[in-house]
Specification:
Helix content: 40-55%
Largest sheet: 5 strands, antiparallel
Number of strands: 11
Number of helices: 21
Radius of gyration: 29 Å
Strand order of the largest sheet: 3-4-7-8-9
Length: about 575
C-alpha cells in the first residue's frame, strides 16, 4: 500500500481511453441510459483478458521475478457515488451496495447487501426488448435499475458490486463532513460565531489556519477539509447542544478509526460503536433545527443522505478487502493527471489517443533508462581491499546487494523531499564520543517520541524568576524542584505528571538561570509500521510580546511510552488540538 499509493511510484498505467459520445435521443434521460450502456460495454471489452484470467488463471511474474499462477479477482473499483450507481446498475436515490431506498438512508443498522445474483435475476425477469430503450427503462423502474442490461461484471467470477465498490474517504467521508457536518455546526452556532471561533484559534505549524473563518470558503479541497476536521469539535464545544456535540464528535471518531492503515477486530468494533453512537444522538440535530435545506433554508425532518447510509458498509468492507485507506481516490485522481491530463496538454488537439500513448511510452522509456544507468553505476563502483578481505557468506552478500539496489531505486522512484528521521539523529548522537557533539543533547528519544531542539535557545541565561513571570508560571521553581527530586540532574526521562506539588515555591535549586526554547519539534513512528516515520510537528510556547499579544501556546497529546495507548488517542502520531 505504501508503494502503490505514492504518486512517484508510477504504479498506475493507462489501460484504455473511454469514448465520450453524444446521442440524439429526444429524451435527455434516455441519452444518459445509452451512455451508461456504452460505458459498460467498453469495460466488458477492455477487461475481457482479466475475466478470462479469473476463470482459468494466468502465469505472472511477482516482484522478485518468480512465476506465479494467478487469478485476477476484482477487489476494488474506485469511483464516486454517481459512477458507483452506474456500475451497480441502480438509479439515483438508491444505494449501490445495499438494497435500501432513500427513505431509509438514516436507519441505524446495515441493510442486506445488493448481491450480483439479485441484480442479474432482476434483469433476467424483465420481459422486454433491450433495444427499446424507453420501454426497457420503464420496466426497470419496479427494481430501481438504471436500464443497463449487461453489466460488465456479470461473467466475472466472484465479482460482487457490494464488495468491489469500496468506500472512498475523499468523496464519502471528507466531502460528507463539508456538505453536512459543517452546515449543522453553522446553524448551531451561527455563521458569524463559527467564523470568529475559527479565526481566534492559534496557528499550528503544518495545519491550515483560517483567519477569516470557513463559511465563505470557495473550492475547498480535501486537505482543507481534513484540517477543519481537526478543529471542529473544539470549536463547537460549549456553544452547541451537548447531544449535537456528541453526534459531531462520534462522526469524527468514525472517520479517524476508519482511516487507520491497519485495522484489527477491536478497531472494527469501535468503528461500528462510533457510528451507532451518532445514530443515538442524531435526533438532536433535527430537534434543534440544524439540518436545513441548502436552498429553502427550511428544517429537514429526514435523513436522506446517501453518504450517511454508505457508512454502515464500512466495517463490512474492511472485513472483505482490508484497510480502506489503500483504496483512496486521492491516488487515482493523481494518476489521472499523470497519465491523461499532462500527456494531453502536450498534444496538438488532434488524435488524442495516439499522442497520449506516445507521450506515456516516451516517459516510461526515459524512466527505465535512468533506472538502468543508476543500477549500472551502482554495480560498477570499485571494490576496496577491505571489502575484498572481509569474510562474508553468500547469503549476506546477496542481501547487501539487494539492499544496495533497493536504495538506488528508492533514490530514483521515491519523492526527492525526504523526511528527516530524528530517531536516527538521536541514535547517532547517543553513541558519539562525548567531546564530538555538544552536551546536553538537543535531539533525544523519550519512549516512542523523538524530540528535537534548535542548537541555540531562544533565551539564554535568564533568571528562573523572570522566566516564571514572563510565562505566567508561578510554580515553575517548585516544578523544577520536583523534577530534580524524581529524575536527578543528568537524566532526560519523563515521569508521570500530576499529583500534589512536593517542593515549596521557594525551593533552593542548584542553578539560577535557564535556557528557554520557544519551540520544539516532535516526531513519532507509525505504530503498525515502525519503518514509516511520521511528519514532524512543531509545538510552540511563546510568551506575550509586541507581535503576539496573548502569546502562543500549542497543546499536544504525546505518547511517550513504547506501548501504544489507542484508547486515549485517535491517531498513531502526535495530534495537535
Amino acid at each position: 500500500m505504501k508503494v502503490r499509493n505514492k504518486g512517484c511510484s508510477h504504479a498506475f498505467l493507462l489501460l484504455a481511453l473511454m469514448p465520450i459520445p453524444q446521442f440524439i435521443h429526444l429524451v435527455r434521460r434516455m441519452c444518459g441510459v445509452l451512455e451508461e450502456r456504452l460505458f459498460q460495454q467498453c469495460l466488458d471489452i477492455v477487461l475481457k483478458p482479466l475475466k478470462q484470467a479469473a476463470r482459468l488463471g494466468h502465469m505472472m511474474s511477482d516482484p522478485v521475478g518468480n512465476l506465479q499462477y494467478c487469478f485476477t479477482h476484482l477487489v476494488s473499483y474506485i469511483v464516486d457515488m454517481p459512477e458507483a450507481r452506474m456500475l451497480a446498475c441502480v438509479r439515483g436515490n438508491t444505494s449501490p451496495v445495499t438494497t435500501v431506498m432513500y427513505k431509509d438512508f438514516g436507519d441505524p443498522h446495515c441493510h442486506p447487501s445488493r448481491t450480483a445474483a439479485t441484480t442479474l435475476a432482476q434483469l433476467a425477469s424483465i420481459e422486454c426488448d433491450v433495444l427499446d430503450v424507453d420501454q426497457y427503462f420503464a420496466a426497470c423502474e419496479c427494481f430501481c435499475l438504471n436500464g443497463v442490461s449487461h453489466p460488465f461484471w456479470r461473467d466475472w467470477p466472484l465479482a460482487e458490486p457490494s464488495e468491489f465498490l469500496t468506500p472512498k474517504s475523499l468523496h464519502e467521508w471528507h466531502r460528507q463532513f463539508w456538505d453536512h457536518d459543517v452546515h449543522w455546526c453553522k446553524h448551531a452556532l451561527g455563521a458569524t460565531e463559527l467564523d470568529f471561533r475559527f479565526s481566534i484559534i492559534p496557528r499550528i505549524t503544518g495545519i491550515a489556519h483560517f483567519p477569516n473563518g470557513i463559511t465563505k470558503l470557495k473550492q475547498v479541497g480535501g486537505r482543507a477539509q481534513r484540517d477543519i476536521q481537526r478543529y471542529i469539535v473544539v470549536v463547537i464545544a460549549g456553544a452547541a447542544d451537548a447531544d449535537v456535540v456528541i453526534a459531531i464528535h462520534t462522526l469524527m471518531e468514525f472517520r479517524y478509526y476508519s482511516q487507520a492503515t491497519t485495522i484489527t477486530s477491536i478497531t472494527r468494533d469501535k468503528i461500528r460503536a462510533s457510528l451507532q453512537e451518532f445514530h443515538d444522538h442524531k435526533d438532536a440535530i433535527i430537534q434543534n433545527g440544524h439540518r436545513r435545506g441548502e436552498k429553502t433554508k427550511q428544517v429537514l425532518r429526514h435523513w436522506h443522505i446517501p453518504k450517511l447510509e454508505l457508512m454502515q458498509s464500512v466495517a463490512l468492507s474492511i472485513e472483505w478487502v482490508g484497510s480502506i485507506l489503500q483504496w483512496s481516490a486521492d491516488t487515482t485522481e493523481h494518476a489521472h493527471i499523470e497519465v491523461i491530463k499532462d500527456p494531453a496538454s502536450t498534444t496538438n488537439n488532434h488524435s488524442y489517443d495516439t499522442q497520449i500513448c506516445q507521450s506515456l511510452d516516451r516517459s516510461e522509456k526515459c524512466r527505465l533508462f535512468d533506472t538502468a544507468l543508476a543500477l549500472c553505476g551502482s554495480t560498477s563502483e570499485p571494490t576496496s581491499m577491505q571489502q575484498l578481505g572481509r569474510e562474508t557468506n553468500d547469503s549476506d552478500s546477496e542481501s547487501s546487494e539487494r539492499d544496495k539496489d533497493r536504495s538506488v531505486l528508492d533514490g530514483i522512484w521515491t519523492s526527492k523531499r525526504k523526511t528527516t528521521s530524528f530517531f536516527d539523529v538521536a541514535a547517532w548522537l547517543s553513541v558519539s564520543p562525548p567531546d564530538s557533539v555538544p552536551r546536553p543533547l538537543r535531539t533525544f528519544i523519550a519512549g516512542s517520541t523523538a524530540i528535537h531542539l534548535n542548537y541555540d535557545p531562544s533565551l539564554k541565561h535568564v533568571p528562573i524568576d523572570i522566566v516564571a513571570e514572563r510565562f505566567k508560571l508561578p510554580d515553575l521553581r517548585g516544578a523544577l524542584g520536583d523534577y530534580l527530586n524524581r529524575e536527578g540532574n543528568v537524566t532526560q526521562d519523563f515521569h508521570t505528571f500530576g499529583g500534589q506539588r512536593q517542593s515549596p515555591l521557594d525551593v533552593h535549586l542548584p542553578f539560577k538561570e535557564l535556557h528557554v526554547w520557544y519551540k520544539v519539534r516532535l516526531q513519532q513512528k507509525a505504530y503498525h509500521d515502525p519503518s514509516n516515520i511520521a511528519s514532524t510537528f512543531t509545538v510552540h510556547a511563546h510568551p506575550p510580546d509586541r507581535l503576539l499579544k496573548y502569546g502562543r501556546y500549542d497543546a499536544a497529546i504525546m505518547n511517550v511510552d513504547d506501548q501504544w495507548c489507542y484508547e486515549s488517542c485517535l491517531s498513531d502520531t502526535v495530534r495537535l488540538d
